[in-house]
Structures are given as structure tokens and as C-alpha cells.
């Protein structure tokens, strides 16, 4: 048994791909949050949690926010997958803020957040997600091109398509961080 766990929540597979890669590199135990009934935090010294971004929030982050006491003293890192480009600083800062807000008041609040690019295939979207994206698209489509944020531009450019920005090499800094004890 490893002393590191990688837990992920993934709706369409992007966070899962990164989680598999990270778990392999760290020789860690891999868990799909959807299949966890009870998680024994005491078995691990280190934990990586990852989930996709949905409307700016990290999918499954409640797993951490509802167990902040069990996380105390452990090495922790969070990763996200999203369509937005993490090379744009404000995208990362927004996600860091969302994570810090969810974990506020706990030691876990200071965990580093690694933002990776994900994937999206509109033909696979659930009804709820398709509806959400259609609503967002109809708002953005009416904006003047020079008023669009980089995120809005990505949504317009990728709307209705299948795009895959997954780059597993982007996980290297997280892997290095977890190794550097
Ligand atoms: C309804 C919906 C909302 C989304 N919101 C965001 C978002 O706020 N920021 C972002 O970067 N990507 C957003 N995305 C894109 C997903 O984060 C991306 O597809 C990610 O790879 C999903 O990871 P998963 O397949 O592991 O769940 C959204 C996608 C959907 C369907």
C-alpha cells in the first residue's frame, strides 16, 4: 500500500486521465470519488485531489471541504481540468480563489492548486450540461468580439465541437511538488 492517494472526480474523462498519470508517477493509490463510500484518511500521509471545472467550481471539492480535519498534517495538492487556458494568470488566480474559499479556515486552504487544460465533446454532454453551455453561448454570442474575455472566446471557438487540450506533461510540476518532501 502506498502512503499517497490520488482521488478524482471526472464527468467526461479529463481529470481521470491526469489522475491516472499522477498516480502512476507517484506510485499512489488511485480512487474515483464516485466509487468511494468511506475514505480512510489515516492510511495516507499525502493526498492529491483533482476535478474538472464547472462554472468556475471544482467538481467534487466537497470531498476536501467536508474533511478538513482529517487532512491536517498531510501533504496536499489540488488539480483542476478546464477549457480555460492556465497560461493566462487570471484564470489560475480565479481557480485558486475558488479552492481557497471552499477550504477557508483550514490548513488545506494553503494547498497548491495546479490548473491543467481539459477536453470537451459536446456530443457526450449530459442534458443539464448541454443546456448550461447553450445558455452561456447565447449570452456570449451577442457580445462584441473586442469585449470577450479569453474564457468567453474559448467557449465561442469550441462550442458544439469536440476539443481535447489534455497535456499530461503539464502534471510534472505537481508530481515534483508531491515528491519534494
Ligand atoms: C456546464 C459546463 C461548465 C464548464 N465550466 C467551465 C469553467 O468554468 N471553466 C473551465 O475552464 N472549463 C469549464 N468547462 C469545461 C470542463 O471543465 C472541461 O470539459 C473539463 O475537461 C472537464 O473535466 P472532466 O471531464 O474530468 O469532468 C465546463 C464544461 C461544462 C460542460
For this entry, give a set of tags:
alpha/beta; six-stranded mixed β-sheet; 2 domains; binds flavin mononucleotide; 22% strand; 36% helix; Rossmann fold; two-stranded antiparallel sheet; 8 strands; 7 helices; 181 residues
Going by CATH, the architecture of the largest domain would be 3-Layer(aba) Sandwich
Q: Which small compounds were modeled alongside the protein?
A: flavin mononucleotide
Q: Which fold name fills CATH's third level, the topology of the largest domain? A: Rossmann fold
Mean pLDDT: 96
Calculate the terminal CA-CA distance, rounded to whole Å: 19 Å
Radius of gyration from the CA trace?
Answer: 17 Å
Total discrete domains? 2
Q: What's the CATH superfamily of the largest domain, by name?
A: Flavodoxin domain
Could you tell me the strand content as a percent range? Answer: 15-25%
State the shape: elongated
* Strand runs, count: 8
Helix-strand topology string: EHEEEHHEHEEHHEH
What structural category arises from helix and sheet content?
alpha/beta
Biggest sheet architecture:
6 strands, mixed
- Per CATH, the class of the largest domain reads Alpha Beta
The low-pLDDT segments are: none
Kindly state the percentage of residues in helix: 25-40%
How many helices? The count is 7
Amino acid at each position: 500500500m502506498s502512503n499517497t492517494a490520488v482521488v478524482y472526480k471526472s464527468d467526461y474523462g479529463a481529470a481521470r486521465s491526469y489522475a491516472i498519470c499522477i498516480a502512476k508517477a507517484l506510485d499512489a493509490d488511485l480512487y474515483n470519488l464516485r466509487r468511494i463510500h468511506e475514505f480512510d484518511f489515516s492510511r495516507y500521509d499525502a493526498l492529491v485531489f483533482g476535478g474538472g471545472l464547472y462554472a468556475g467550481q471544482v467538481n467534487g471539492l466537497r470531498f476536501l471541504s467536508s474533511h478538513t480535519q482529517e487532512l491536517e498534517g498531510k501533504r496536499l495538492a489540488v488539480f483542476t481540468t478546464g477549457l480555460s487556458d492556465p497560461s493566462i494568470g487570471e484564470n489560475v488566480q480565479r481557480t485558486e480563489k475558488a479552492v481557497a474559499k471552499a477550504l477557508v479556515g483550514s490548513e488545506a486552504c494553503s494547498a497548491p492548486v495546479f490548473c491543467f487544460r481539459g477536453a470537451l465533446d459536446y456530443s457526450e454532454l449530459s442534458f443539464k450540461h448541454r443546456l448550461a453551455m447553450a445558455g452561456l453561448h447565447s449570452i456570449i454570442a451577442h457580445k462584441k468580439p473586442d469585449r470577450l474575455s479569453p474564457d468567453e472566446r474559448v467557449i465561442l471557438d469550441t462550442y458544439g465541437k469536440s476539443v481535447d487540450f489534455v497535456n499530461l506533461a503539464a502534471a510534472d510540476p505537481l508530481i515534483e511538488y508531491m515528491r519534494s518532501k
